Amino acid sequence: MMKKFFxxxxxxxxxxxxxxxxxxxxxxxxxxxTNQLNGVWGSKAGTVYAVGQVGTILxxxxxxxxxxxxxxxxxxxxxxxxxxxxxxxxxxxxxILHYKGISWSLVNSSPTxxxxxxxxxxxxxxxxxxxxxxxxxxxxGxSWSLVxPSPTTQSLNAxxxxxxxxxxxxxxxxxxxxxxxxxxxxxxxxxxxxxxxxxxxxxSNVFAVGETGTIIxxxGxSWSLQTSxxxxxxxxxxxxxxSDVFAVGQNGTIIxxxGISWSLVxPSPTTATLYGVWGSPAGDFFxxxxxxxxxxxxxxxxxxxxxxxxxxxxxxxxxxxxxxxxSKVAGQDRGNxxxxxxxxxxxxxxxxxxxxxxxxxQNTDEISGILNRTPELKSRFSxxxxxxxxxxxxxxxxGSITISADDLQEIHDFxxxxxxxxxFKLRTDIDFILRGLKSGWLLQWLGVTxx
Length: 451
Description:
2 domains; 39% strand; 4-stranded antiparallel sheet; alpha+beta
């Protein structure tokens, strides 16, 4: 079914890959506070909240950060919402705040006097908060209650889950506890270091970070230590996908995971300790920290300098030494397809003999997940698949086709909407396709004429 997506959604069967060079950068943003910021979360890139010392609450509207009125002077440690108008903040001495789209209010019926360090939920009626001395609280959409007995006496610093029946909390002395929908149980973490944050792309791809650069990874069966590029304490971890993960920490430390290994992001735009990181599904990241520090992450795709054609493969040399490889491989044996990861590992300097790795093989899991979570997109995908398959088959057989402007617009609009939910890698691949369609060279290369 996913193969049909790439055959039909593009209205032409094409397999393509872009070995692109990205200029990646974190930059400082103007902040309206000098108070330490501990947590950041948003419903989308243009609606982001940050919380911190003395009850500080900031909101980013896509243009600037502004202070919001806070009903507490207690330190706030974390923030999470089910939407931009249903947001919870938690902090010292059991403080819980709730935002319903107009103003923040104090939840007077907090179930605990213990400080809460983290909050996360799967929906508006299934939210967890964790804190000191093993405190675990749960919100059912109506009220908060204390989870008893606690799964641990160790302080818990962060909570995250892939679903309401697959929730992880981490904390002091390497503590990791797991909720399966019925009860919390302790897990073997392979470390005694204090863990400050946890995040995953799925229940079988979970990361936790902490003291002295500690990184542990859960593969669905067991936790293991990962090689870390830093000895600085890491306070927060978040990703747009399993191959696009950032962790931030002490003295402005930022590290990135590309699906293979972690690397240090240099230079960092700040020496301030960073306590929180979050990004939109589209890959727009924000980090917050000491002295009101706020960072934003952006990426730019390098421009092409020269292009040469080699048989049925086009090679584009990109400034900085990168290579873009594109090729029609319809009907080619799948076993001959070399993945981008293999291309990078082999440090290929020329496209001669290299076979195109495809968007399908790189992004199928992520797109499948997006469609399963987004019924409207899935319905459109099904409609496009059914209506465009004959066109796709014709291109395969004849090498050229004619399509209507309306058909092309439908494909274009689908990619635009899919991009809103995509992680960084998929988003940039889609952007490449959209630019190719807009300029016309991709259609020409594919043998597609628009009437």
